[in-house]
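Complex 256.
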Amino acid sequence: MTITAIGSGKGGTGKTLIAVSLAHAFAHLGERVLLCDADFGLANAGVHLGLAETGDLKAVIDGTKPLGAATVHVGSGRTGFDLLAAPSGSGALANLNTDSVEKLCTALEHASQYDRVLIDLGAGIDANVMTIAARADEVLLVVTPDPASLTDAYAFAKLMLRRTTSRLPQVLVNMAMNATEGRRVAEALAGSAQAFLRATPESAGAIPFDPRVSDAVRRQSSLLTLFPQSPAAIAIEAVARKLHGHAAPLAAAGLR
Ligand SMILES: Nc1ncnc2c1ncn2[C@@H]1O[C@H](COP(=O)(O)OP(=O)(O)OP(=O)(O)O)[C@@H](O)[C@H]1O
Ligand SMILES: [Mg+2]
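Predicted structure with magnesium ion bound:
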Protein backbone atom coordinates (compact mmCIF):
# COMPACT_ATOMS: atom_id res chain seq x y z
CA MET A 1 0.00 0.00 0.00
CA THR A 2 1.25 3.44 -0.90
CA ILE A 3 0.26 6.65 0.86
CA THR A 4 0.30 9.63 -1.50
CA ALA A 5 -0.31 13.08 0.01
CA ILE A 6 -1.16 16.15 -2.07
CA GLY A 7 -0.11 19.56 -0.77
CA SER A 8 0.88 22.98 -2.07
CA GLY A 9 1.33 25.52 0.67
CA LYS A 10 -0.76 28.11 -1.15
CA GLY A 11 -4.54 27.70 -1.34
CA GLY A 12 -6.53 27.24 -4.52
CA THR A 13 -3.83 25.49 -6.56
CA GLY A 14 -6.06 22.53 -7.47
CA LYS A 15 -5.18 20.03 -4.70
CA THR A 16 -8.72 18.79 -4.17
CA LEU A 17 -9.45 18.57 -7.90
CA ILE A 18 -6.24 16.58 -8.35
CA ALA A 19 -6.87 14.33 -5.31
CA VAL A 20 -10.40 13.46 -6.43
CA SER A 21 -9.33 12.92 -10.05
CA LEU A 22 -6.34 10.78 -9.05
CA ALA A 23 -8.65 8.66 -6.88
CA HIS A 24 -10.67 7.87 -10.02
CA ALA A 25 -7.56 7.38 -12.14
CA PHE A 26 -5.87 4.95 -9.71
CA ALA A 27 -9.12 2.99 -9.37
CA HIS A 28 -9.23 2.81 -13.16
CA LEU A 29 -5.75 1.28 -13.06
CA GLY A 30 -7.10 -1.47 -10.81
CA GLU A 31 -5.97 -0.07 -7.45
CA ARG A 32 -8.19 -0.23 -4.36
CA VAL A 33 -8.25 3.44 -3.35
CA LEU A 34 -9.08 5.41 -0.21
CA LEU A 35 -9.28 9.20 -0.47
CA CYS A 36 -8.86 10.96 2.87
CA ASP A 37 -9.82 14.63 3.08
CA ALA A 38 -7.28 16.06 5.51
CA ASP A 39 -8.29 19.67 4.86
CA PHE A 40 -9.56 19.48 8.43
CA GLY A 41 -11.22 22.85 8.91
CA LEU A 42 -12.71 23.19 5.44
CA ALA A 43 -13.21 19.68 4.05
CA ASN A 44 -14.52 19.94 0.51
CA ALA A 45 -13.68 16.79 -1.44
CA GLY A 46 -17.31 15.79 -0.86
CA VAL A 47 -18.46 19.11 -2.32
CA HIS A 48 -16.39 18.53 -5.46
CA LEU A 49 -18.22 15.23 -5.86
CA GLY A 50 -21.68 16.49 -4.88
CA LEU A 51 -21.97 14.00 -2.02
CA ALA A 52 -24.33 14.25 0.93
CA GLU A 53 -22.49 11.52 2.87
CA THR A 54 -18.72 11.85 3.26
CA GLY A 55 -17.83 9.38 5.99
CA ASP A 56 -16.80 9.91 9.60
CA LEU A 57 -13.19 11.03 9.83
CA LYS A 58 -13.69 12.26 13.39
CA ALA A 59 -14.69 8.77 14.56
CA VAL A 60 -11.46 7.32 13.14
CA ILE A 61 -9.42 9.98 14.91
CA ASP A 62 -11.33 9.45 18.17
CA GLY A 63 -10.95 5.68 17.79
CA THR A 64 -14.71 5.13 18.10
CA LYS A 65 -15.07 3.45 14.68
CA PRO A 66 -12.74 1.25 12.66
CA LEU A 67 -11.77 2.66 9.29
CA GLY A 68 -14.00 0.16 7.45
CA ALA A 69 -17.11 1.51 9.21
CA ALA A 70 -16.22 5.18 8.68
CA THR A 71 -15.81 5.43 4.89
CA VAL A 72 -18.37 5.87 2.12
CA HIS A 73 -18.06 4.34 -1.33
CA VAL A 74 -18.05 6.81 -4.22
CA GLY A 75 -18.96 5.89 -7.79
CA SER A 76 -19.23 2.39 -9.06
CA GLY A 77 -17.43 -0.26 -11.02
CA ARG A 78 -13.88 0.32 -12.16
CA THR A 79 -13.61 3.93 -11.03
CA GLY A 80 -15.17 3.54 -7.58
CA PHE A 81 -13.19 4.41 -4.46
CA ASP A 82 -13.76 4.97 -0.74
CA LEU A 83 -13.86 8.42 0.86
CA LEU A 84 -13.04 9.36 4.44
CA ALA A 85 -13.89 12.96 5.34
CA ALA A 86 -15.63 15.11 7.89
CA PRO A 87 -19.00 16.57 6.85
CA SER A 88 -18.44 19.65 4.65
CA GLY A 89 -19.09 22.91 6.43
CA SER A 90 -19.24 21.27 9.87
CA GLY A 91 -15.93 22.65 11.10
CA ALA A 92 -15.90 19.50 13.24
CA LEU A 93 -12.16 19.01 12.88
CA ALA A 94 -10.86 22.60 13.01
CA ASN A 95 -7.82 23.01 15.31
CA LEU A 96 -6.88 19.35 15.60
CA ASN A 97 -3.94 18.69 17.88
CA THR A 98 -0.80 16.84 16.83
CA ASP A 99 -1.76 13.67 18.74
CA SER A 100 -4.99 13.40 16.77
CA VAL A 101 -3.17 13.87 13.48
CA GLU A 102 -0.59 11.22 14.42
CA LYS A 103 -3.48 8.85 15.29
CA LEU A 104 -5.04 9.42 11.88
CA CYS A 105 -1.68 8.73 10.18
CA THR A 106 -1.35 5.46 12.11
CA ALA A 107 -4.89 4.39 11.13
CA LEU A 108 -4.15 5.12 7.47
CA GLU A 109 -0.81 3.31 7.60
CA HIS A 110 -2.68 0.19 8.75
CA ALA A 111 -5.26 0.37 5.96
CA SER A 112 -3.90 -2.71 4.19
CA GLN A 113 -7.25 -3.34 2.49
CA TYR A 114 -6.20 -0.59 0.04
CA ASP A 115 -3.43 -0.34 -2.56
CA ARG A 116 -3.40 3.46 -2.40
CA VAL A 117 -4.35 6.01 0.24
CA LEU A 118 -4.59 9.52 -1.21
CA ILE A 119 -4.55 12.41 1.23
CA ASP A 120 -5.82 15.89 0.28
CA LEU A 121 -3.71 18.01 2.61
CA GLY A 122 -5.49 21.33 2.43
CA ALA A 123 -3.63 24.64 2.17
CA GLY A 124 -0.82 25.85 4.38
CA ILE A 125 2.39 24.56 5.89
CA ASP A 126 1.30 24.27 9.51
CA ALA A 127 2.47 21.50 11.82
CA ASN A 128 -0.46 19.20 11.00
CA VAL A 129 0.10 19.44 7.26
CA MET A 130 3.84 18.78 7.63
CA THR A 131 3.28 15.88 10.05
CA ILE A 132 1.16 14.06 7.48
CA ALA A 133 3.50 14.96 4.60
CA ALA A 134 6.51 13.62 6.50
CA ARG A 135 4.77 10.30 7.21
CA ALA A 136 3.42 9.78 3.67
CA ASP A 137 5.30 7.51 1.25
CA GLU A 138 5.22 10.19 -1.42
CA VAL A 139 4.06 13.81 -1.59
CA LEU A 140 2.83 15.65 -4.66
CA LEU A 141 3.55 19.36 -4.34
CA VAL A 142 1.11 21.26 -6.56
CA VAL A 143 2.52 24.46 -7.98
CA THR A 144 0.91 26.90 -10.42
CA PRO A 145 2.35 29.78 -12.49
CA ASP A 146 1.23 32.19 -9.73
CA PRO A 147 4.49 33.51 -8.16
CA ALA A 148 3.03 33.17 -4.63
CA SER A 149 2.41 29.48 -5.27
CA LEU A 150 6.12 29.06 -6.09
CA THR A 151 7.30 30.70 -2.85
CA ASP A 152 4.81 28.71 -0.79
CA ALA A 153 5.81 25.48 -2.54
CA TYR A 154 9.45 26.22 -1.81
CA ALA A 155 8.61 26.74 1.89
CA PHE A 156 6.73 23.41 1.88
CA ALA A 157 9.69 21.58 0.32
CA LYS A 158 12.12 23.18 2.78
CA LEU A 159 10.03 22.19 5.82
CA MET A 160 9.56 18.66 4.53
CA LEU A 161 13.27 18.25 3.94
CA ARG A 162 13.94 19.54 7.46
CA ARG A 163 11.46 17.11 9.05
CA THR A 164 12.54 14.05 7.10
CA THR A 165 16.23 14.99 6.73
CA SER A 166 16.36 13.62 3.20
CA ARG A 167 13.00 13.55 1.44
CA LEU A 168 11.57 16.10 -0.96
CA PRO A 169 8.09 16.22 -2.48
CA GLN A 170 7.56 15.59 -6.21
CA VAL A 171 6.56 18.69 -8.16
CA LEU A 172 3.23 18.64 -10.00
CA VAL A 173 2.59 21.74 -12.11
CA ASN A 174 -1.07 22.73 -12.48
CA MET A 175 -2.87 25.36 -14.57
CA ALA A 176 0.00 26.07 -16.95
CA MET A 177 -1.21 27.69 -20.19
CA ASN A 178 1.16 25.59 -22.31
CA ALA A 179 4.09 23.19 -22.05
CA THR A 180 6.67 26.00 -22.05
CA GLU A 181 5.04 27.71 -19.08
CA GLY A 182 4.76 24.34 -17.31
CA ARG A 183 8.49 23.71 -17.75
CA ARG A 184 9.36 27.24 -16.62
CA VAL A 185 7.39 26.79 -13.38
CA ALA A 186 8.96 23.40 -12.62
CA GLU A 187 12.44 24.73 -13.39
CA ALA A 188 11.96 27.80 -11.20
CA LEU A 189 11.11 25.63 -8.20
CA ALA A 190 13.87 23.12 -8.95
CA GLY A 191 16.35 26.03 -9.30
CA SER A 192 15.50 27.47 -5.87
CA ALA A 193 15.62 24.02 -4.27
CA GLN A 194 19.00 23.29 -5.82
CA ALA A 195 20.46 26.67 -4.86
CA PHE A 196 19.21 26.87 -1.28
CA LEU A 197 18.44 23.28 -0.23
CA ARG A 198 21.11 21.52 -2.30
CA ALA A 199 18.52 19.02 -3.50
CA THR A 200 16.41 18.76 -6.65
CA PRO A 201 12.79 17.61 -6.46
CA GLU A 202 11.57 15.05 -8.99
CA SER A 203 8.79 15.95 -11.42
CA ALA A 204 5.43 14.17 -11.22
CA GLY A 205 4.20 15.84 -14.42
CA ALA A 206 2.02 18.78 -15.47
CA ILE A 207 -1.70 19.42 -15.83
CA PRO A 208 -2.72 22.21 -18.22
CA PHE A 209 -5.18 25.00 -17.51
CA ASP A 210 -8.46 23.61 -18.82
CA PRO A 211 -11.90 25.33 -18.73
CA ARG A 212 -13.53 21.89 -18.42
CA VAL A 213 -12.16 21.71 -14.86
CA SER A 214 -14.26 24.57 -13.49
CA ASP A 215 -17.19 23.20 -15.48
CA ALA A 216 -16.88 19.85 -13.68
CA VAL A 217 -16.33 21.54 -10.28
CA ARG A 218 -19.43 23.73 -10.76
CA ARG A 219 -21.48 20.68 -11.70
CA GLN A 220 -20.09 18.83 -8.66
CA SER A 221 -19.07 15.92 -10.84
CA SER A 222 -15.78 14.18 -11.38
CA LEU A 223 -13.70 15.59 -14.24
CA LEU A 224 -12.68 12.10 -15.33
CA THR A 225 -16.29 10.93 -15.57
CA LEU A 226 -17.70 14.06 -17.17
CA PHE A 227 -14.88 14.98 -19.56
CA PRO A 228 -12.54 11.98 -19.86
CA GLN A 229 -11.05 13.32 -23.11
CA SER A 230 -10.29 16.82 -21.78
CA PRO A 231 -6.59 17.80 -21.69
CA ALA A 232 -6.58 18.04 -17.86
CA ALA A 233 -8.19 14.59 -17.45
CA ILE A 234 -5.70 13.02 -19.87
CA ALA A 235 -2.79 14.66 -18.01
CA ILE A 236 -4.07 13.44 -14.62
CA GLU A 237 -4.39 9.88 -15.96
CA ALA A 238 -0.76 10.14 -17.10
CA VAL A 239 0.35 11.26 -13.61
CA ALA A 240 -1.50 8.28 -12.11
CA ARG A 241 0.11 5.85 -14.57
CA LYS A 242 3.57 7.20 -13.73
CA LEU A 243 3.03 6.89 -9.96
CA HIS A 244 1.36 3.47 -10.39
CA GLY A 245 4.45 2.24 -12.23
CA HIS A 246 6.69 3.41 -9.41
CA ALA A 247 4.80 1.58 -6.64
CA ALA A 248 7.17 -0.12 -4.23
CA PRO A 249 7.43 -3.89 -4.92
CA LEU A 250 6.06 -4.73 -1.46
CA ALA A 251 3.04 -2.49 -2.03
CA ALA A 252 2.00 -4.63 -4.99
CA ALA A 253 1.85 -7.64 -2.72
CA GLY A 254 -0.33 -5.75 -0.24
CA LEU A 255 2.44 -5.71 2.36
CA ARG A 256 3.76 -2.70 4.19
N1 LIG B 1 -6.09 22.55 -14.41
C1 LIG B 1 -7.03 23.45 -14.11
N2 LIG B 1 -7.59 24.23 -15.08
C2 LIG B 1 -8.53 25.15 -14.77
N3 LIG B 1 -9.00 25.38 -13.52
C3 LIG B 1 -8.50 24.64 -12.53
C4 LIG B 1 -7.49 23.64 -12.75
N4 LIG B 1 -7.19 23.06 -11.55
C5 LIG B 1 -7.97 23.66 -10.63
N5 LIG B 1 -8.76 24.61 -11.21
C6 LIG B 1 -9.75 25.47 -10.53
O1 LIG B 1 -9.15 26.03 -9.38
C7 LIG B 1 -10.08 26.12 -8.32
C8 LIG B 1 -9.46 25.57 -7.06
O2 LIG B 1 -9.33 24.16 -7.17
P1 LIG B 1 -9.30 23.26 -5.86
O3 LIG B 1 -10.48 23.50 -5.01
O4 LIG B 1 -9.04 21.86 -6.31
O5 LIG B 1 -7.99 23.88 -5.17
P2 LIG B 1 -7.40 23.56 -3.73
O6 LIG B 1 -5.93 23.67 -3.85
O7 LIG B 1 -7.95 22.28 -3.22
O8 LIG B 1 -7.97 24.77 -2.86
P3 LIG B 1 -7.93 24.92 -1.25
O9 LIG B 1 -6.53 25.34 -0.93
O10 LIG B 1 -8.95 25.98 -0.98
O11 LIG B 1 -8.27 23.58 -0.66
C9 LIG B 1 -11.33 25.35 -8.75
O12 LIG B 1 -12.37 26.27 -8.98
C10 LIG B 1 -10.95 24.66 -10.02
O13 LIG B 1 -12.00 24.76 -10.95
MG1 LIG C 1 -8.92 21.83 -1.40
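Strands lie at 2-7, 33-37, 72-74, 81-84, 116-120, 138-143, 170-176, 203-208.
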